């Protein structure tokens, strides 16, 4: 039984939040919870995802309160975090989702008409729409298997 993605977060190289989005029905209530889980996961990023280990695309960073947080570290030290329901014995591959989010971030950063500030949150409708499309496709596939 596939799991649903509950949130996506991007954190800058200096650990300031760039983007966080909830995919739950109670978005405002859970957004604070997802911020908290994202910051908790940052404690495990460097130990689980070292830059010398090139075979790891992503890793399970922590499980807390029924949520599993997976993380990926880009070459520029941008941390991509995905929160899912924690279910034992369920195997799934988030590699393509992490790559799609990373490609969307690269497109956002490489836009010549947008000034990127690594301290400021991402406020791009195109970036937000692309993340929505990736996650909604994943979650609709997960619902189809239930």
UniProtKB/TrEMBL annotation:
Coiled coil: none annotated. SUPFAM superfamilies: SNARE-like. GO terms for cellular component: cytoplasm. InterPro entries: Longin-like_dom_sf, Sedlin. GO terms for biological process: endoplasmic reticulum to Golgi vesicle-mediated transport. Pfam families: Sedlin_N (PF04628). PANTHER family: TRAFFICKING PROTEIN PARTICLE COMPLEX SUBUNIT 2. This is Similar to Saccharomyces cerevisiae YEL048C TCA17 Subunit of TRAPPII, a multimeric GEF involved in intra-Golgi and endosome-to-Golgi transport. It comes from Geotrichum candidum (Oospora lactis).
């Amino acid at each position: 039984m596939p799991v649903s993605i509950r949130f996506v977060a991007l954190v800058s190289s200096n650990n300031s939040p760039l983007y966080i989005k909830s995919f739950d029905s109670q978005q405002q209530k859970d957004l604070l919870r997802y911020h908290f889980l994202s910051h908790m996961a940052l404690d495990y990023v460097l130990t689980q995802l070292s830059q010398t280990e090139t075979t790891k695309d992503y890793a399970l960073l922590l499980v807390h309160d029924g949520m599993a947080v997976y993380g990926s570290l880009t070459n520029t030290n941008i941390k991509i975090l995905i929160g899912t329901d924690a279910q034992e014995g369920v195997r799934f591959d988030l590699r393509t989702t992490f790559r799609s989010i990373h490609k969307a971030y690269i497109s956002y950063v490489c836009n010549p008409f947008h000034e990127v500030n690594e301290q400021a949150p991402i406020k791009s409708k195109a970036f937000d729409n692309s993340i929505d499309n990736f996650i909604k496709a994943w979650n609709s596939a997960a619902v189809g298997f239930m």
